[in-house]
Amino acid sequence: MRKLLVTGGAGFIGSNFVRYTLDHTDDQVTVLDKLTYAANRATLDGLPADRFKLVVGDICDADTVEQLIAESDAVVHFAAESHNDNSLSDPTPFVQTNLVGTFTLLEAARRHNVRFHHISTDEVYGDLALDDPERFTESTPYNPSSPYSSTKAGSDLLVRAWVRSFGLRATISNCSNNYGPYQHVEKFIPRQITNVLDGIRPRLYGQGLNVRDWIHVDDHSSAVLTILDKGEIGETYLIGADGEESNKHVVELILDAFGKDAGDYDLVTDRAGHDLRYAIDSTRLRSELEWQPRFGSFEQGLAQTIDWYREHEDWWRADKADTEAKYAKAGQ
Ligand code: NAD
Ligand code: DAU
């Protein structure tokens, strides 16, 4: 029975990973999470007390990190400031958590020789033209665009250096855009679903032509467990499920699910430096580690996600007004 330390386990992907791990393994899970605005304590309600524990704390706090890593067999590091729009209005917490926090964890992991898996993003590779036949692979050069993605790129490079210089037993995964339950209403898909539920028209940045490569969060979780079990130390794996969609098409699917007109949205101020397209080639993960996504189609996963937000207003309601007020100030 493995003891896992999951940082950021009260956020969207971390909490889904914790549930998935408790359901599919015998692992004991300790979550270290600062409970920032992005976390919701209710997300972790009902988890089995004999296998799960929440420690409220900061990954930049070396004493807390040292103590928790000393008790762990492996760390899965999700904690981050994760929202591009926020990184444009104030990059400060991004530099602190994503860079200093990752450094703090790496130092403790090397002192205790603990297996480390670092969760990262496809955004470290920059963006692609809409008609580029190539997709991102493990050898695509880093070229991040935003304060968020540049701090994630920096954190990846720290992990690589700790592997090479100190022999840290680490792996890295770079995943595409996740969707599913428990995602904060600041993010694209939950924002548009909850807008429609509130009678507000969905908001598309620019012309809505930007493309994201969607993956259901449970498929991200299964990929991370696969890499933790079978991944080669020092290696990077790209995680994706061939889910490319334009933002406009995603909004049209959401409107259709609510029986609304496909054109019932507003075009708003574009994001500064807005990446045009992300696309992942996950051949390596599929061929070397025999991973496969379980969600057959984006439409199927989106329909489940829409149902989840319809049924869990109690979970998202408290964040909605503040989030929309922030967007309104930015003309979005
Ligand atoms: P999120 O914003 O929903 O959750 C982040 C969590 O980290 C929150 O619970 C927050 O309280 C916690 N946290 C933030 N700062 C902390 C600190 N200093 N100490 C301890 N905890 C702290 O983010 P998410 O969307 O779940 O993303 C999780 C990870 O996955 C991030 O590393 C992100 O870069 C990566 N990622 C996200 C996506 C995506 O589509 N959302 C895709 C690929 C990779
Ligand atoms: O690619 C992985 C990344 O995906 C992760 O690393 C990030 O943590 C995660 O937030 C996500 O980043 P994006 O910037 O792609 O996600 P976001 O949900 O903010 O936006 C998705 C797309 O939708 C993007 O092109 C911007 C656009 N958008 C977003 C919002 C909130 C809109 O058109 N309207 C909106 O209201």
Automatic annotation (TrEMBL):
Obligatory cofactor(s): NAD(+)
Domain of life: Bacteria
Enzyme Commission numbers on file: 4.2.1.46
EC class: lyase
SUPFAM superfamilies in UniProt: NAD(P)-binding Rossmann-fold domains
Catalytic reaction equation(s): dTDP-alpha-D-glucose = dTDP-4-dehydro-6-deoxy-alpha-D-glucose + H2O
Coiled coil: none
GO MF annotation terms: dTDP-glucose 4,6-dehydratase activity
Keyword check for Aminoacyl-tRNA synthetase: no
Domain named NAD(P)-binding: residues: 5-304
UniProt-listed GO biological process terms: nucleotide-sugar metabolic process
Span of the signal peptide: none
Record key words, sorted: Lyase, NAD
Family annotation (PANTHER family): DTDP-D-GLUCOSE 4,6-DEHYDRATASE-RELATED
Protein family per UniProt: Belongs to the NAD(P)-dependent epimerase/dehydratase family. dTDP-glucose dehydratase subfamily.
NCBIfam families: dTDP_gluc_dehyt
Protein name in the entry: dTDP-glucose 4,6-dehydratase
Organism, scientific name: Spelaeicoccus albus
